[in-house]
Design a protein that fits this description.
By secondary structure, the chain is α+β, with helices and mostly antiparallel strands. Helices cover 48% and strands 21% of the residues.
Length: 178
């Protein structure tokens, strides 16, 4: 997948519509210095933009694989354009994430917003809750995020508690290097 080209096409349209977006998922982790293999582009946008985002993706030739109030997944027949997943946020969550996001270097040096590490971790906790098959990869990603000196560990723990996954938090704490 040509991440830079795909991100550029989507970013240009969202910016023209006045909608903020942030890089999350594997590329969000990479912007924070944690590289790992990823096959898709994950973006976070306000929920109010969902109809426009889905229309944009279909206009760009993507098939909408799934759509719910919190997520949509899109796949292009051309592997160079690949899969793009969107996370939709609203209310206080939207306000907190975008107010605290930082501009960082994304694919091919593009400047993009990236949420705070604790927000990325919370998204991964929710992803694990919704799809337990993601648990090992997401726990590994969260463990990496927890090594950042400025991460709010209490906020990450609160996400595990909010989603009923304190056992996984305890596992991370037990395996934490001293």
């Amino acid at each position: 997948m040509d991440f830079a080209t795909v991100l550029g096409r989507i970013a240009e349209r969202l910016e023209r519509q006045g909608e903020p977006f942030a890089l999350v998922g594997g590329l969000g982790l990479a912007a924070l210095g944690f590289t790992r293999s990823t096959l898709d582009l994950d973006l976070l946008v306000p929920a109010r933009a969902q109809d426009a985002v889905v229309a944009l993706m279909e206009e760009l030739g993507y098939e909408t694989l799934h759509r719910s109030s919190g997520f949509s997944n899109h796949l292009h027949a051309d592997e160079a354009f690949g899969r793009v997943d969107f996370v939709y946020v609203r209310g206080d969550t939207e306000a907190k994430i975008f107010a605290n996001a930082s501009k960082m270097e994304g694919p091919d040096g593009a400047e993009v917003l990236v949420p705070r590490p604790e927000h990325l971790a919370a998204m991964k906790v929710l992803a694990m809750k919704n799809d337990p098959g993601r648990r090992l990869q997401d726990l590994a990603d969260i463990a990496r995020l927890l090594t950042l000196k400025d991460i709010d560990r209490d906020a990450v723990r609160a996400a595990f508690e909010r989603y009923g996954m304190l056992g996984s938090w305890d596992e991370l704490e037990r395996d934490r290097p001293d």
